[in-house]
């Protein structure tokens, strides 16, 4: 899986054009889809409008009745499309590591990890991405594990944003664009001090999100059962990053999960997830009922959240380090994306761990 590859690497190594003109212009007309006759839990339709300024054309992100992830891809790859501003919630973490060596082997002597999550506005363009007030200039493309071609934007070396259109957790992925665009921001600052003892210190930060166009009430036909089922994966990153043996405590673990969206009231329920992985890790995941409101996911009450526990594996040697974890996350966010509510994401964060759920609508 792509996420396991990306996250394990970190732990071991330490939208298309619209009409021209000077004002707001609509990019497209939504398709004729019969809207729900009840109060919709989904977003109101939002057209893509663009502003043309000296620096070029910038468009807002529309909702899904105006297009799919190809609009986001066009913002990244088509110079005529114009840049696109879009908001998304992502999880983040900080990691500090210190290794010392007086010979051939490096021994970990200090380390820490801290987690969080935040909603950020990102401006996507062919030549640059703007994120948290900084500009990341296009550097090069790269081959993604999914078989698609990703793009790398950097502010300085080792402070970069990676983007790729990805098809998520499907047995037979569809051709063409994925359902969401993965945006992964990573920064690594390292120092080496030599003398009688060589010291390597690294400070790394990550922010990871899936970006898509929110489902609106014109882009979805409600099922007669008032139920939509999603199947996907819940991933957890946890650990305190302190040294143990030859490496640091912390890692990633994932399990399959099934969720049900009640389209009459917006409730999302799940029996949770429990599994043991081949490398010795395990996960027990329980989520309180959350709700979809205008296509955004939020807890019903402030105290609601997820209870997460298990073991994560880490290290470069066998046997690997087995780290227990338990945390409760009450910082919950996410969304329903794409035509006909095809994708559901839920993120949760706490100071000692984060989780991410991505599910596709069952056919």
For the structure shown, list the relevant keywords.
363 residues; mainly beta; 8-stranded antiparallel barrel; 8-stranded antiparallel β-barrel; 24 strands; 6% helix; globular; disordered N terminus
The SS-based structural class is mainly beta
Side by side, the strands of the main sheet go: 3-4-5-6-7-8-9-10
Main sheet properties? 8 strands, antiparallel, barrel
Number of helices: 2
Shape: globular
Gyration radius from CA atoms, angstroms: 21 Å
> What is the first-to-last residue Cα distance?
22 Å
How are the secondary structure elements laid out?
Blueprint lengths: L1 H11 L37 E4 L2 E5 L8 H9 L5 E19 L5 E18 L3 E4 L2 E10 L5 E8 L2 E8 L13 E14 L4 E14 L15 E12 L4 E2 L2 E2 L2 E12 L4 E3 L3 E4 L5 E6 L2 E4 L2 E4 L6 E9 L6 E9 L1 E7 L5 E8 L2 E9 L2
Parallel strand pairs: 2-3
Antiparallel strand pairs: 1-2, 3-4, 3-10, 4-5, 5-6, 6-7, 7-8, 8-9, 9-10, 11-14, 11-24, 12-13, 14-15, 15-18, 16-17, 17-20, 18-19, 19-22, 20-21, 22-23, 23-24
Question: What report would you give on this structure?
Answer:
With 363 residues, this protein is mainly β. It is built from 2 helices and 24 strands. It has helices at 2-12, 69-77; strands spanning 50-53, 56-60, 83-101, 107-124, 128-131, 134-143, 149-156, 159-166, 180-193, 198-211, 227-238, 243-244, 247-248, 251-262, 267-269, 273-276, 282-287, 290-293, 296-299, 306-314, 321-329, 331-337, 343-350, 353-361. The strands form 4 sheets. Strands 3-4-5-6-7-8-9-10 form an 8-stranded antiparallel β-barrel. Strands 11-14-15-18-19-22-23-24 form an 8-stranded antiparallel β-barrel. A hairpin with a 5-residue loop joins strand 3 (83-101) and strand 4 (107-124). The model is unreliable at 1-38 and 168-177 (pLDDT under 50).
């Amino acid at each position: 899986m792509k996420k396991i590859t990306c996250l394990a690497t970190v732990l071991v190594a330490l939208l298309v054009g619209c009409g021209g003109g000077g004002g707001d212009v609509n990019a497209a007309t939504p398709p004729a889809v019969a809207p729900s006759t009840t109060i919709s839990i989904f977003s109101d339709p939002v057209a893509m409008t663009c502003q043309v300024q000296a620096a070029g054309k910038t468009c807002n992100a529309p909702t899904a009745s105006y297009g799919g992830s190809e609009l986001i891809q066009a913002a990244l790859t088509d110079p005529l499309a114009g840049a696109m501003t879009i908001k998304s919630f992502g999880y983040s973490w900080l990691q500090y590591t210190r290794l010392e060596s007086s010979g051939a082997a490096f021994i970990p002597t200090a380390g820490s990890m801290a987690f969080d999550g935040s909603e950020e506005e990102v401006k996507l363009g062919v030549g640059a991405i703007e994120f948290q007030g900084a500009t990341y200039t296009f550097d090069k493309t790269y081959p993604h594990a999914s078989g698609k071609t990703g793009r790398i934007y950097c502010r300085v070396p080792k402070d970069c944003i990676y983007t790729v259109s990805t098809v998520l957790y499907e047995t037979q992925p569809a051709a063409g664009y994925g359902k969401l665009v993965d945006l992964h921001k990573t920064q690594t600052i390292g120092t080496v001090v030599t003398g009688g003892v060589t010291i390597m210190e690294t400070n790394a930060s990550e922010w990871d999100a899936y970006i898509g166009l929110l489902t609106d009430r014109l882009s979805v036909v409600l099922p007669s059962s008032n139920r939509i089922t999603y199947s996907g994966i819940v991933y957890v990153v946890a650990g305190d990053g302190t040294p143990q043996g030859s490496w640091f405590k912390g890692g990633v673990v994932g399990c399959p999960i099934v969720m049900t969206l009640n389209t009459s009231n917006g409730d999302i329920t799940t029996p949770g997830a429990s599994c043991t992985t081949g490398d010795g890790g395990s996960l027990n995941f329980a989520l309180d009922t959350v709700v979809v409101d205008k296509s955004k996911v939020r807890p019903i009450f402030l105290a609601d959240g997820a209870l997460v526990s298990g073991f994560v594996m880490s290290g470069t040697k066998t046997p690997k380090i087995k780290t227990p974890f338990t945390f409760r996350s009450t910082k919950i966010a996410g969304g329903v994306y794409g035509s006909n509510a095809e994708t559901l994401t839920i993120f949760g964060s706490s100071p000692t761990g984060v989780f991410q759920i991505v599910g596709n609508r069952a056919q």
